[in-house]
Amino acid sequence: MAEINTPEEKSLNFIEEIIEEDLKSGRYKSIITRFPPEPNGYLHIGHASSICLNFGLTKKFPGYTNLRFDDTNPTTEETEYVESIKDDVRWLGFEWKNELYASDYFDQMYAFAVKLIEKGLAYVDDSTSDQIAAMKGSPTEPGKDSPFRTRSVEENLDLFTRMKNGEFPDGSRTLRAKIDMAHVNMLMRDPVLYRIKHAHHHRTGDKWCIYPMYDMAHGQSDSIENVTHSICTLEFVPHRELYDWLIEKLEIYPSHQYEFARRNLSYTVTSKRKLLQLVNEKYVSGWDDPRMPTISGLRRAGYTPESIREFCTRIGIAKRDNMIDVSLLEFCVREHLNKIALRRMVVFDPVKVVLTNYPADGSFEIVKSEDNPEDPNTTHREIPFSRELYIEREDFMENPPKKFFRLAPGQMVRLKSAYIIKCDEVVKDSNGKITELHCTYIPESKSNADTSGIHVKGTLHWVSVAQAISVEVRLYDRLFKVENPSSEEGDFKDYINPNSLQTITTAYAEPALRNIRFADRCQFLRKGYFCLDKDTSEEKMVFNRTVTLKDTWAKEAKKA
Ligand code: ATP
Ligand code: MG
Fold first, then answer.
1. Is 272's C-beta closer than 6 angstroms to any atom of ligand 1?
2. pLDDT of residue 554
3. Integer Cα distance of 457 and 459 in angstroms
4. Among 57, 233, 269, 320, which is best to mutate for testing ligand 1, by the most ligand atoms less than 8 A from CB?
5. Three-state DSSP string of 520-554
6. Which of residues 234, 260, 286 is at a domain's end?
7. Atom in ligand 1 nearest the alpha carbon of residue 263
8. Does the Cβ of 49 fall within 6 Å of ligand 1?
9. CATH number, domain with residue 70
10. Is 546 known as a binding-site position?
11. Separation of 38 CA from ligand 2 center, angstroms?
């Protein structure tokens, strides 16, 4: 990761350069940006990049950022999404100046449309959408004028009023801008501005049965709010001409549109439409399933806002669409969690160790261990140590290969923050399964007071059987088996990783894990970073693995 610049070293990105120039030249004294989500789904990591950009600009330069819900499409939008979007932006650490809704401007937008009609720049078209498409032409061929293009201003005003009044059925008429059916930019060939849709809107209810199209709503909302720099993704480059045309003809505040590349993340999909399919078809437990690339999914998985902001800073902004390796996101969260996580020991698949030279009267002692060795002021937790312990089954081998530094017959290891033990005897049941390891501990080898003179290469995590608490652990892996499921042949859902969730219902944890709260982050020693899941109940604590300690996928790639 050495090639990645730290934020301080980074120079201004191209949008920051534009803004700096605009402020220097006196074009603006301060700037206004907006984050404009359509409330038709939960925000994902791509949106985080847009949020960090828009809000980041007004942290860096004088001005402010609005949160505007682009809610002009009545059929796909819901209040649940509005609430989740607000939660996510706040959780990421940003506060908007105004909470705004494009639907609040429906009256104004209607007046804008009337103004265009009055100026002879818009007309009501009775063609169907298929007929309109057929008359569009192609990039190499001009389109054809609609037979309704020459209607009088009076007739257009009358028909548009009646469209608004609900006299016509869905799809029977549209309002179109009168620009140029031979324009080189296909979007300028008399684009549709308004359509009829008898649908209930989540905020305006049944007041409207005509709704503005994206181009008739977005720039106008920007202008109404005096947005100086309207930032969107590259697919809107061809729309900029129409954006400017409408502002010019309406003689309203000149907002300007700037475009940057969409951010896509490997091994997942970043499209609300596709994410909705995963939710509806139950491939995941919901929008906040920890395997989802949604902000709420990442939050539930244990990601921190700091790590996501750091990720967005590191990827910066680009002018060409590209795929970001998910391991960079994982790297960012690992780096942050290493600094803040409380260390705890949890055994996932136990085998019992009996220390034959430790008192058998049920007594135990307390050893202390650092909550976080990365923190110079770390606190310590108390861990009970006794005659019967659990270690991880995979940390023992009866016939180990060379360089196996964990436990084996006759071999010694250190138990973290406690003693060195030696394995003397393996006990098996009638099926040959190992049930117990009989070991002796070296009383002089206690951590921090070791006078044994013995050096061992392996250190294992462990828990004391009598005091262990049982917890559930959910281990997540990438949701897709391939880097870019959307570009593969067939349906993107054919590439779902069938092993993306492994649940361990009974893992054994040291008792200090009981004090963990939802805001805490843990490192389960040698296992990964974990956080408490909302499914936790009085009876059972449930933990999600945020990320492994190392990049296990990189290891796989090297092996292959
Ligand atoms: P989706 O295709 O996932 O539905 P969208 O672009 O339709 O995304 P909006 O709610 O319209 O979603 O987006 C709000 C803002 O976030 C827009 O300015 C949009 O350009 C930006 N945005 C959306 N997806 C990405 C992405 N992958 N990378 C960067 N910015 C994005
Ligand atoms: Mg959209």
1. yes
2. 60
3. 7
4. 233
5. CCEEECCCEEEEECCCCCCCCCEEEEEECCCCHHH
6. 260
7. 28
8. yes
9. 3.40.50.620
10. no
11. 6
Tell me which of 208, 233, 260 is where a domain ends.
260
Q: Which of 50, 214, 222, 279 to mutate to test the pocket of ligand 1 (most atoms within 8 A of CB)?
A: 50
Count of domains observed in the chain: 3
Q: At what angle do helices 305-315 and 326-340 cross, to 10 degrees?
A: 140
In a domain, 8, yes or no: no
- Say whether both 190 and 110 belong to one domain: yes
Please check whether residues 137 and 216 belong to one and the same domain: yes
- Distance in angstroms (rounded) separating the CA atoms of residues 149 and 122: 9
* Residue found under tokens 């936790």: 536
> Domain for residue 266, yes or no?
no
pTM above threshold 0.85: yes
Residue 167 within a domain: yes
Ligand 1 binding pocket includes 50 (Cβ within 6 Å): yes
pLDDT at position 452 = 96
Question: Mean pLDDT for each consecutive 10-residue tract of the chain (560 residues)?
Answer: 44 91 97 97 97 97 98 87 97 98 98 98 97 96 98 98 98 98 98 97 96 98 98 97 98 98 94 96 97 98 98 92 94 97 98 98 96 95 98 97 95 97 97 97 96 95 98 97 94 96 98 96 97 96 96 54
357 assigned binding-site residue: no
Is 205 in the same domain as 279?
Answer: no
CA nearest to 301, candidates 23, 533, 51, 144: 533
> Would you state the pLDDT for residue 321?
85
Q: Are residues 119 and 229 in the same domain?
A: yes
The whole-number pLDDT of residue 551 equals: 72
> Is residue 40 marked as binding?
yes
Q: Is the CB of 39 under 6 A from ligand 1?
A: no
Which ligand minimizes its atom distance to the CA of 69? 1
Give the span between the Cα atoms of 545 and 78, in whole angstroms.
31
Strand runs labelled E in 411-467: 412-415, 420-428, 434-441, 459-460, 463-464
CATH number for position 356:
2.40.240.10
- Together in a domain, 483 and 443: no
Cα–Cα distance between 316 and 53 in angstroms, integer? 9
Ligand 1: does its nearest atom lie under 6 Å from the Cβ of 63? no
Assess whether 350 and 443 both reside in one domain.
yes
Range of the domain at 119: 14-260
Are residue 235 and residue 359 in the same domain, yes or no? no
In a domain, 265, yes or no: no
Domain shared by 119 and 198, yes or no: yes
Nearest CA to ligand 1 atom 14: 37
What pLDDT does residue 201 have? 95
Q: What's the maximum distance between 2 C-alpha atoms anywhere in the chain?
A: 102
Per-residue pLDDT, 559: 44
